[in-house]
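TASK: fixed-backbone design
INPUT:
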């Protein structure tokens, strides 16, 4: 049931991707508004996850989870009835807000329910695989709903899933929360939201030029707010993000890996759907089905990686996964305007799925390994926030690269121009995956028993 929550949270980051071309025509969206339909969700989700994690810790994880489900469902219905671009973007932002309550509460419940051992490995393998496959499942479901119903059903479909989650959560979940002095970090919340929002918006403006004053100003402001956030967190008694959660080398490395994975699964896959529909002329359902090999590859690799995990530990998988994923993205970068899906797209998708499957199985487990119960919500939120903020920043950066290479900013729209832009975005994503492999080599170190503690082992502490 908790994995179902993770599925709809991740799925909603991509389910509208397939629907965007039709939604753009229906609502008269500009290209910038089209991007913000994706970015608004990921940014609100990622920026507010830390606060959501603390609310889950302090107010109660079950209670927070149920409230998040209700709000998420209502925002989905609102988005389905949107009559304009700003209306849809606002609804997507509210979806992200309530997802920021729901997701860390679900992951924190999983963390305290499975503190260690074989059951924890299995639980996190399932949870991580669902998170990894959710982005691709969203593309398939989005295509099915767009072609045979209406693009609006890509939002309305959440309502019955939310209803099931509410019933199951009310009956099956047990309340838990952190003990002791629980005060909210208001200044930390303001600075981290302002910092992440400014940074993402600055990268979005870079589509029109890196040297522009507004581009530089927003990026600089974002960095400044985030530096101030770290300073505040090091001094307040009850920080929004206890620095001990991210200061540990292994956990910090895992969070960085999640950011890169998010940039690929949210950002790079958007341009694949554009290529399939706009250049190759696939119908929405066919375009969604065309991404299915990615999901199948992740699902096929997950059981193998789960069995391998206790034998060799997470480090080899977390190094090999990004490298294999980078190869898949480079294969995708070889697309041409008149190329064959079977020759130019399918091999890259399968290889990318294999790489992501190897990475996702150990990733959530390592990111939350050794976290104290008091910090379970904050750590869970950081794990989710890393992926969503990585997706927001990745999408902004890939959009800038696409616009620059394709000549979109100057009005060029030929198939050759579009493919050149998409290819450049895939190459940039591949570079990011190589960097992720280096991060794993440098940061994910230590005996496998320490990286994946059993219930008998002490938690890992920062230091």
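OUTPUT:
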């Amino acid at each position: 049931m908790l994995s179902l929550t993770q599925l709809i949270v991740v799925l909603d980051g991509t389910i509208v991707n397939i629907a965007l071309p039709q939604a753009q025509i229906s609502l008269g969206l500009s290209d910038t508004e089209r991007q913000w339909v994706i970015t608004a969700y990921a940014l609100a989700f990622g920026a507010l996850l830390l606060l959501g994690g603390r609310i889950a810790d302090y107010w109660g994880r079950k209670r927070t989870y149920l409230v998040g489900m209700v709000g998420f469902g209502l925002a989905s219905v609102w988005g389905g009835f949107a009559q304009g671009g700003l209306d849809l973007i606002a609804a997507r932002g509210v979806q992200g807000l309530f997802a920021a309550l729901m997701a860390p509460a679900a992951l924190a419940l999983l963390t305290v329910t499975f503190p260690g051992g074989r059951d924890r490995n299995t639980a996190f393998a399932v949870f991580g695989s669902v998170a990894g496959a959710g982005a691709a499942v969203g593309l398939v479901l989005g295509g099915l709903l767009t072609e045979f119903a209406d693009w609006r059903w890509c939002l309305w479909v959440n309502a019955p899933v939310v209803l099931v989650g509410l019933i199951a959560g009310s009956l099956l979940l047990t309340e838990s929360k952190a003990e002791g002095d629980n005060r909210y970090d208001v200044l930390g919340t303001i600075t981290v939201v302002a910092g992440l929002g400014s940074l993402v918006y600055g990268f979005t403006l870079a589509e029109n030029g890196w040297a522009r004053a507004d581009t530089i100003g927003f990026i600089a402001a974002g960095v400044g707010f985030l530096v101030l956030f770290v300073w505040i967190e090091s001094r307040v008694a009850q920080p929004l993000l206890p620095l001990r959660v991210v200061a540990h080398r292994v956990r910090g490395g895992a969070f960085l890996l999640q950011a890169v994975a998010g940039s690929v699964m949210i950002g790079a896959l958007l341009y694949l759907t554009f290529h399939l529909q706009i250049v190759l002329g696939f119908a929405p359902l066919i375009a969604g089905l065309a991404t299915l090999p990615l999901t199948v590859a992740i699902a096929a690799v997950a059981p193998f990686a789960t069995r391998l995990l206790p034998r060799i530990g997470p480090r080899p998988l977390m190094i090999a996964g990004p490298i294999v994923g980078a190869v898949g993205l480079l294969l995708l970068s070889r697309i041409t305007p008149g190329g064959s899906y079977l020759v130019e797209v399918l091999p890259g998708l399968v290889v990318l799925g294999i790489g992501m499957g190897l990475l996702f199985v150990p990733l959530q487990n390592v990111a939350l390994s050794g976290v104290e119960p008091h910090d379970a919500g904050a750590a869970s939120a950081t794990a989710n926030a890393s992926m969503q903020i990585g997706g927001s920043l990745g999408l902004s950066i890939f959009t800038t690269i696409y616009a620059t290479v394709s000549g979109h900013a100057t009005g060029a729209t030929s198939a050759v121009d579009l493919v050149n832009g998409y290819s450049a975005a895939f190459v940039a994503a591949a570079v990011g995956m190589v960097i992720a492999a280096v991060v794993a080599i440098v940061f994910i170190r230590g005996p496998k028993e320490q990286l994946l503690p059993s219930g008998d082992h002490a938690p890992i502490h920062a230091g």
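COMMENT: Residues 198 and 222 are 5 Å apart (CA to CA).
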